[in-house]
Amino acid sequence: MASVKLTKVKKIYDNKVVAVHDFDLDIQDKEFVVFVGPSGCGKSTTLRMIAGLEEISEGTVEIDGVVVNDLQPKDRDIAMVFQNYALYPHMTVYDNIAFSLRLRKMPEDLIYEKVTNAAEILGITEYLMRKPRALSGGQRQRVAIGRAMVRESKVFLMDEPLSNLDAKLRNQMRAEIILLRQKMDTTFIYVTHDQTEAMTLADRIVIMKDGYIMQVGTPAECFDMPANLFVAEFIGAPKMNIIKTELLKENGKYYVTPFDTKIEVTGEKGAELARRGVESGPVLLGVRPEHITLCREGEGIPTILEVNEMMGSELHLHVYVQPKEEGEEDQGEAKEPAPVDPASCLIVRVPTIGLTADQRKNMAYGAPLNITFEGKVMHFFDPETEKNLLL
Amino acid sequence: MSKQREEAQAVMKRHMGLKASARISNTVIHIVLVLMAIIWLVPFVCIVLQSFRTETNPDGTRVTWMVPYIVPKKWGLDNYVNLFKSDFKDWYLNTFIIALVVAAVQTFIVLCMSYTLSRFRFKLRKGLMQFMLILGMFPGMLTMIILYRVLKDLGLTEAHAVPGLILVYVASSGMGYYVSKGFFDTIPKTLDEAARVDGASRAQVLFKIILPLAKPIVIYTVLTAFMAPWGDFVFARYIAFGDSSGMNAAVGLWKWLTQDMINLRYTMFCAGGVVVAIPVAVLFMCLQKYYVEGVTGGAVKG
Amino acid sequence: MKRYTDMEYLRLSKGRKFLYKIAAFFCAIPRGLKNFFLGIVRAVVNFFKSIGREFADIFTTFVKGDWKTKLSYFVMGFGNIARGQILRGLLFLLFEAVFIVYMIVAGAKWLSMLPSLGKVGPHEVYNPVLDQYTTEYGDNSFKILLYGVLTIFFIIAFIYTWRVNIRQNKLSEQIIKSGKPLKSGRDDLRSLVDDNFHRTLLALPLTGILIFTVMPIIFMILVAFTNYSGINDGYANNLFTWVGLDNFNTLLAWEGAGNVYSATFGEILSWTLIWAFFATFTNYFLGMFVAMMINKKGIRLKKLWRTILVLTIAIPQFISLLYVSKMFDKNGIINGLLSDLGIISQNIDFWGSTAHNALLPRVMVIVINIWIGIPYLMLIATGILMNIPADLYESAKIDGAGGWKQFSKITLPYMLFITGPYLLTSFTGNMNNFNVIYLLTGGKPINAAASSAAGSAGYTDLLITWLFKITTGEGAKYYMASVIGILVFVVVAVISLVVYNLLPSIKNEEDFQ
């Protein structure tokens, strides 16, 4: 029930390592913000600075307009769920959840009401008298959330709360957090390294790398218009294909030439390029795997299938473009095949439903596949700055 | 074909051999362990037996000196009776008081120190730890004289040695923070953080979260602190300075084994040793689990 | 020396690899030394730089500060009180008052006498009231030195507090300027259980260490530069004085007549090192061996064996060691047993009290130390052995390693890695192992050649027991003991420093984690 504002927040450790650079962010009341990024990007450090568990080297953190830099965590009115749950091992589940209320000298019957209420919402009523060690991972997670819930604090912080759960449970808890959020109606700051969690939970995503913010935006914005190469590759699974190629401007139309194939940039993307007056030159071309389609032999880009991952409703095909043969073909002993150039590897996502049984059978190691993609789904990045050319 | 069978047989044989050799080696180890147990127990058995030895010479005087045999020729409780008629009861009481007070205060100090060094990151933390490491390299023996003089000025020597001893034992006990700091380090820091976010002050974190979890190390600290004063005779002797009423049991008994006393007091020393060893050893054995946990960093649950 | 790249090194033969490593080790020494001294130089430079900064800050604070701050330079805490921080201000003021009163009443006197350590010895004075001569004890050098040192401590503490007082004024001015409220006395008190809880917790332990460890050690170091013998007990012979480096010369002058100290010191130091080596490593390997025996699969009554061994830890050493020493007496039980069994015809003089034989007693103390030490090491080793991940052994077995290979390639490296720091402390601990030596032999048999040196050193005496004899026995020479004490410190510190920097667990902290 509060806004959080970070202004030029910086974290410098004793060994002069800068973990977070000039972090600026305005979080609205009741917003669900997710910090996402690879490990070591400073997302947890930022969260811990908001919580008061880490000293703020420079800049200010405001909660509800009050600068909290010098406040102890207990005085900031926040609740937090930790990655490894941090349940007090010597207390029962009930005492764990009641701990913060008791510290606030709340009367016991009120505590009882709040704890049982939270336990009911989370479905842990029957475990209230157990010690944490007698609970499963998912149950512990619920207790940890319950402990934070009863505080009814201004800000709800979650530090990778699902990363210790197995995949199935993680999906389930993710859905529960969405439900919880609707019930609690407070400001959430959530840290994760998993882009799926970020996409599904967030109102706004903050993507971080090496202590810098890469992009702030809604999940759709980040997916459709990644600010730079890092965001493009980080958001979406399997990750976006990046092809080093040339952008050509001919007669007011734009073409790209991946693997010696000329494809016109059409739709909004083409119009935007023209509007910005982008000139010909080298470019990093990004195409999401689901935007690549298979086509008939003789059309598109000829590739060779390396790995075929059957995902159920779709196939993930790892293909590579064979380099042009130089000189005559080898007739004699099979030479050691040249290692595949990673730059020529692409991932293609194909829905199984459109494939005939024959086609599927033929998709085995070494099978030739021709692929193509449309001009309107392309992303363009500057090879030097790695910034999105259209942003 | 036959070669294969031979190989298979060889493997079988080796297998059988393995089992047999394991059995042999286990038997050997059991024998070694029994021998070791005997070696480790003999001195204690001897001392107990000697403490019951009440032989007399033909002229009626007691044979109180060392004899080259183990099993007494005549048994009795005389040594114990005499023991408690002598100054020993004062020494015993002194030691007991010292041990109790030291156990309480030292535990408090050690816990303060180790908790702080484990949990707080203040500016001089590293420097402080290095400084204490360096202090520990000076031979502590040499500070004895000055401490004696200081205590003497305070009137805490000789007959009043008990409070003086307590003071000295307790004062520097902060340097022995190492084991319990190691234990505190194993309690996850996120527990502290969770409690602080939950609204606890640093002091509340210590009393409500950490101490209840640190029970094994608290017991370990109490136990070691309680045991140490029973064994100290160097400093205690110096502080008591020959005054019998200020001695602890170790000093008194040690004195009985010096050249001029040993022939009169040897069997009483044995009885005294038994009386000193029993409470300490019983306590130790009861709490052995915690001691082992402390020494092994929690890997062995005694 | 030719440096190999990693790939080149991997292609060397086993022997060459070994030689290369040794060569690399020795080549690294000069660099290590250089870094060490450079580090010292840098530390000194930084120290003076920071002092300079402090002075600059004190000066600018005074120039730029308001009148409250300026007055605080003379009346400590004035600024705090004037700005409403009554509690802090009063504490500063109280401290200043106590300091000034102390300096006037006593401090100045002790300080002024410190350079000479007193001039007037005990003498007779005519007392006209009683009409007789009474003894005046005169100056007491010991007290002068002791209280002189304490006064210097106090002055340092005062200067530090004064500096804190100034810094606080500066901070307060800044805070007021930025428009925030200052912390109240209530805030200060509350921070003692929260923000500044560590200060509260450390106050008592550190005071104890300061008074009962640091101060005596400083005193001891100072005594090495005096001729204080340790026996003058405040009455007859109260005076001693500074002698500069004379005591060090006495100990370290290797030639010259009547120089018993240097030879004795050398002899005892070498035995101390030999003893520490054997005491540490015999215990270490045998303890590990026993732990492995007890933990082996198929061994029964594990707990019983462990408990029996642990009994030696439970029973105070002065009982067990004194008793064991009597068991091995020339007329003790062991000799009685051996002659009853007909193994010996003549009693063995285990402690060499008559034979003046050094070897047997030395071996005996090492052997009995094993008896004392194995249980402790057994516990530690058990703890570590249980922590070695079982999959390491499983994968080694699958790779085809037998029992011995598993021990030498997994168990031993793991143990050494984890216990490296422990081995070091146990080595230095054994160098100073007073109990075992003193209770078993008391340092005997007496070393005839060295006995004329103070303290009548014996063949089994360690430096620490020798020190004890020099400080407490008849003809005590505390000043010599202090010199030796300082040298013991130097030896221990050098060994620790060198070994510590070579320890794998310090160098590659993550290897086994």
Looking at this protein, list some descriptive labels.
heterotrimer, A: 391 residues, OB fold (Dihydrolipoamide Acetyltransferase, E2P), six-stranded mixed sheet, five-stranded antiparallel sheet, 30% strand, B: 302 residues, mainly alpha, MetI-like fold, 14 helices, 72% helix, flat
Task: Give an overview of the whole structure.
- The complex is a heterotrimer of chains A (391), B (302) and C (513).
- Chain A is of the alpha+beta class and 391 residues long.
- Chain A has two domains: 4-234, Rossmann fold (3-Layer(aba) Sandwich); 241-323 and 342-381, Beta Barrel (OB fold (Dihydrolipoamide Acetyltransferase, E2P)).
- Chain A is built from ten helices and 20 strands.
- The longest helix of chain A is centred in the middle third of the chain and has 18 residues, at 167-184.
- Chain B has a domain at 87-295: MetI-like (MetI-like fold), CATH 1.10.3720.
- In chain B, 72% of the residues lie in helices and 0% in strands.
- Chain B contains 14 helices and no strands.
- Chain C has 513 residues and is an all-alpha fold.
- Helices cover 69% and strands 2% of the residues of chain C.
- Chains in contact: A-B, B-C.
- Chains B and C meet through helix 1, helix 3, helix 4, helix 5 and helix 6 of B and helix 8, helix 10, helix 11, helix 12 and helix 13 of C.
Brief write-up:
The complex is a heterotrimer of chains A (391), B (302) and C (513). Chain A is an alpha+beta fold and 391 residues long.
What layout of secondary structure does this protein have?
The complex is a heterotrimer of chains A (391), B (302) and C (513).
Chain A: E1 4-12, E2 18-27, E3 32-36, H1 43-51, E4 58-63, E5 66-67, E6 78-81, H2 93-103, H3 108-122, H4 137-149, E7 155-159, H5 167-184, E8 187-192, H6 195-201, E9 204-209, E10 212-217, H7 219-224, H8 229-234, E11 241-250, E12 253-256, E13 263-264, H9 267-276, E14 281-287, E15 292-295, E16 301-310, E17 314-320, E18 345-351, H10 357-362, E19 368-373, E20 379-381
Parallel strand pairs in A: 3-8, 3-9, 6-7, 7-8
Antiparallel strand pairs in A: 1-2, 1-4, 4-5, 9-10, 11-12, 11-14, 12-13, 14-20, 15-19, 16-17, 16-19, 17-18
Helix pairs in contact in A: 2-3, 2-4, 3-4
Chain B: H1 2-51, H2 78-85, H3 88-119, H4 125-135, H5 143-153, H6 161-171, H7 178-186, H8 189-197, H9 202-213, H10 215-231, H11 234-240, H12 249-256, H13 262-286, H14 288-295
Helix pairs in contact in B: 1-13, 2-13, 3-6, 3-7, 3-10, 3-12, 8-9, 10-13, 10-14, 12-13
Chain C: H1 6-10, H2 14-64, H3 67-72, H4 78-82, H5 86-113, E1 123-127, E2 132-136, H6 141-177, H7 185-191, H8 197-223, H9 246-252, H10 260-295, H11 302-314, H12 317-327, H13 333-340, H14 359-387, H15 390-398, H16 403-431, H17 434-440, H18 463-472, H19 478-502, H20 504-507
Helix pairs in contact in C: 5-6, 8-19, 10-14, 10-16, 11-14, 12-17, 16-19, 18-19
